[in-house]
Amino acid sequence: MIAKRSRMEIVHDMLSVISKYPAVGPTKIIYKANLSHDRFKEYLQFLKARELVDESTQKGKTTFTLTLKGRDFLSKFHQVKELSEAFGLPL
Amino acid sequence: MVLLSIPLWFFGLDFAVYGLCSFFAFLVAYFANSISQVSGKRAHYHLFVSFSLLGAGMLAVSLSSLMVFSQPYLGITFSESVSGLDDVGYWIYYITAIAAYALLAYTYVNEAKPEFIAPAILPSWPLLYSHFNLVSLVMLSFTLFHMAINFLSKKNLNSLFILSGFCLIGLHHLLLLFMPFYNLVYLLSHFLLLCGFTLLVVVLRRVGR
Question: What is the ipTM of this complex?
C-alpha cells in the first residue's frame, strides 16, 4: 500500500515541478504533482503566503516561478525529512 | 554521604563533560531550529526549545562548576557564596532539564493521542524537587517509548542512534539514583551522558552531509 503524502511532501512535489521549468502553468503542476484542482488551489495559497513561489499573468496566462526561498526549501527538504524521521516526528 | 561516592580527581572535570554536552545540545537545537523554519511545524519548534533548554541548563552547571573548582588554583579564597554558586548552576539545570524533558514528552504524547497529555505528565510533578533524576526518567520514558516505536517502524541507522542516544541519557539519570551506594557511578553516568549527546550529534553529521 502506498503511504499517504504528508503536507510537506506535497509542497515539495509542487516545488520540484516548478523548479524544473523557467515558468510553469497550473495544469502541468496539477498533472506532475498528482493533485486535484481543489488541492492545488489550497496548496498554492500556502506556497504564496510563505513566498515560496511567484505568480505572474501574461496575456491571460498564469505561470509560476520558484523564489529564492522556494529553492532554499527544496535544498533543505531532504535534511528536514531525514532529521524528522530520525527523531520520530511527523513531517 | 553523596559526595564521598564521587572520585576526587573527577571534581572540576565535570565542567568539561557538561560543557561538551551543552555544546552538543545547542548543535541539535540549531538544526531543529533550521528545520522548524523550513517546515513551520510545532513539533520541530518544540525540539528546538527542548534542546536549547537542556543546553542552557548544562552550560549553567558547567560554568558554575568551573568557577567553584578554579578558585583554589587561582589563589582566591573559597567563600560560602562561591560554593552556593554551584548549587545555583545545578538548580538551573534541574529546572531547565525537567522543562525540556516535559516538552519532549508533551510533543511525542501529543503526536500520538492528544487526550493523554495531562494524565501522562501531571502525576510526576509533585516529585520535582526531591527526585530530579526520577522525574527525568519518567519524562524520558515517554520519549524513549516513542523513539523505540519509531526505530521498529523505520529500522534505519539514524533512528537507532537517536534511540541509543536517548537511552544513554536515560541511563545517566538512572545511574545517578544509585550514586550514594556505589563508587564511580557518578563518573560512569557522566560518561554515558556524553556518549548519548555524541550519538545525537553523529546523526546531525550524517543528515547534514
Answer: 0.76
